[in-house]
Amino acid sequence: MSHILGFGGYVPERVMTNDDWAALVDTSDEWITQRTGIKRRRVAGPDESTLTLAGQAAAVAIKDAGLSADDIDEIIVATDTPEVYTPDTAALLQDLLGCRNVPTYDLGGSGCAGFVQGLDVARARIAFSPRTILVVGVELITRLIDWNDRSTAVLFGDAAGAVVLGPEPGRATVLDIVSGTDGSAAGILTLGVGGTRHPFNQAAIDSGAYNRLVMDGRRVFTEAVTRMSTAVSDVLDRIGKTVGDVDLVIPHQANLRIIDAVRKKLGAEQERVYVNIHEYGNTGSATVPFALWECVETGRIEKGDLVVLTAFGAGFHWAAVALQF
Ligand code: UT7
User: Fold this and answer.
1) Are residues 150 and 208 in the same domain?
2) How many domains does one find in the chain?
3) CA-153 nearest atom, ligand 1
4) Could you give the CA distance from residue 16 to residue 214 in angstroms, rounded to a whole number?
5) What is the domain extent for residue 81?
6) Which pTM value belongs to this model?
7) For position 138, which CATH number holds?
8) Bond prior to 316 in cis (omega within 30° of 0)
9) For a Cys staple, 314 with which of 29, 61, 115, 189, CB 3.0–4.6 Å?
């Protein structure tokens, strides 16, 4: 078994409202609110980067665990918006935090499901050989998206979240995780430029394709609802529990209508499904760990609670995690 020893989260100070977006592109507070539930999001300042956001959340989680950087045996960073192309953000984070020369790696390209996938990898590593692992989900999406594309730009915000996972009993036990991928649906959510298929070159810049997130919004919507609700049911089956036993579900926050549809499919009341999308928008792989930290910080989660995390993301990936506090 692996256990969460500490939780961390960080969001930049700058708030950008729907009206701020409406001043830049052809959109409105009404459209964004009705279609997504988002009211505002955070935007990183010029002195911030993916690494600094990750560093803030990681430091909070390590302190919360009552540990120091020296105690960390491995670092996993889930991000689709890395600090640099090579090396991994996790290596840079190791140096920033002053950790020992422990192994580090990024889970890149998993979209918003990256953090929960990272938890799954971390618990397997701990089962293989006991160690203390820092798992971070971080995105600085606002610096890479196309600010002229109203159909995607208004959806996102910047944030970071982190947990420290270890083999000894802590604040929450990871009871089980289910995860899956349908690679045949890779095309429904993709940023294709920058790899070897479409190198980042002058032609990519001239065409504007270099920062164009290609998204089949409706297909992503239906996949998200089906995959997240099934993943939650599956993980509960595996631990012999039902939705009625769950104190709180923390779903990925991409669209309030997706969250509502998942909630209805599961048959859970509104108060047992966490929502913060109005404040932060979709913060990619930071969403779930940031929301988890927020729930712990505000007392929304209490000792004894059964909590289920679930996420989906580009890939198409999905996962659900059962946590016993
Ligand atoms: O981690 C990333 C995961 N991404 C997602 O989870 C996205 C999942 N999908 C969604 O959340 C929804 O599909 C969206 C919020 C992206 C779009 O909502 P929708 O109800 O599916 O709208 P739509 O794409 O069918 O667009 C409806 C209309 C279109 O105009 P026409 O063709 O009907 O004239 C769009 O051009 O809304 C228009 N539109 C906008 N209007 C104002 C698209 N974006 C905007 C905008 N402001 N920002």
Assistant:
1) no
2) 2
3) 48
4) 23
5) 2-170
6) 0.97
7) 3.40.47.10
8) yes
9) 189
